[in-house]
């Protein structure tokens, strides 16, 4: 009986195609949110049938990107939480650590709201919001942040600001490697501007720089 020797290479090739399509989608949707799946297939170097075999429609493709973003956020959060640091330094570290992920998926935020619904976006961002809420609660307790707003409400507000800044990066209105957003986040939380800038400068020197995926 002949062994199905080709199955493993075929599965490996299928995974490679899927990864390439997703990487291409992240890049091309940022340039043109209305790009068609046929155009994406050409950009990814696969035939239309291959793309539709993995993603039968635009919503399926965006859902796959949302799931990929969610998993990436969770992986980065493992290193992004610094409970031993003062709250202002912990918040700066978190923003700088998570920024490359948000930058990579910034196009997804607006598209997912339109195609998948705001609830799905909230679900993707929920773990990050929980971390920030915990940092804010600690900072308010220690007198580092203002207590004008409850931690959960302030966290949601900071999230909205970050999303808006990511969208400004997407449109070209803002250039940022995360440091400007980190300073703005600390200021919005109640840290004086000079102190916020000093903290972010110190933290930026120790935050691991994420290398872009090899297929991008």
TL;DR?
74% of the residues lie in helices and 0% in strands. The protein is mainly α and 216 residues long. Helix 4 (58-80) packs parallel to helix 7.
Task: Describe this protein's structure.
- The protein has helices at residues 7-31, 37-44, 48-54, 58-80, 87-104, 106-115, 118-142, 151-171, 179-189, 193-204.
- The chain starts with 6 loop residues before the first helix and ends in a 12-residue tail after the last helix.
- The protein has 216 residues and is mainly α.
- The protein has 10 helices and no strands.
- Helix 5 packs across helix 10 (193-204).
- Helix content is 74%, strand content 0%.
Order of helices and strands: HHHHHHHHHH
Distance between the termini: 42 Å
Unreliable stretches (pLDDT < 50, length at least 5) are 212-216
Radius of gyration: 20 Å
Q: Say how many strands there are.
A: 0
Structural class per helix/strand content?
Answer: mainly alpha
List keywords for this structure.
single chain; 216 residues; mainly alpha; 74% helix; 0% strand; elongated; disordered C terminus
Please write out the topology.
Blueprint: H1 7-31, H2 37-44, H3 48-54, H4 58-80, H5 87-104, H6 106-115, H7 118-142, H8 151-171, H9 179-189, H10 193-204
């Amino acid at each position: 009986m002949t062994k199905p020797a080709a199955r493993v290479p075929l599965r490996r090739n299928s995974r490679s195609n899927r990864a390439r399509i997703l990487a291409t989608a992240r890049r091309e949707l940022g340039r043109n949110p209305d790009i068609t799946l046929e155009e994406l297939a050409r950009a990814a170097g696969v035939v239309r049938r291959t793309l539709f075999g993995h993603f039968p429609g635009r919503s399926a493709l965006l859902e796959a990107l949302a799931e990929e973003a969610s998993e990436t956020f969770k992986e980065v959060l493992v290193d992004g939480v610094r409970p031993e640091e003062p709250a202002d330094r912990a918040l700066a570290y978190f923003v700088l650590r998570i920024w490359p992920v948000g930058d990579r998926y910034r196009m997804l935020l607006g598209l997912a709201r339109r195609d998948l619904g705001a609830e799905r976006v909230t679900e993707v961002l929920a773990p990050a919001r929980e971390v920030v809420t915990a940092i804010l609660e600690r900072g308010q307790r220690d007198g580092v942040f203002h207590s004008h707003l409850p931690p959960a409400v302030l966290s949601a507000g900071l999230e909205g600001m970050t999303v808006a800044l990511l969208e400004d990066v997407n449109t070209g209105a803002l250039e940022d490697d995360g440091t400007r957003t980190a300073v703005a986040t600390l200021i919005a939380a109640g840290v004086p501007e000079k102190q916020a800038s000093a903290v972010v400068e110190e933290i930026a020197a120790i935050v691991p720089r994420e290398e872009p995926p090899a297929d991008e």
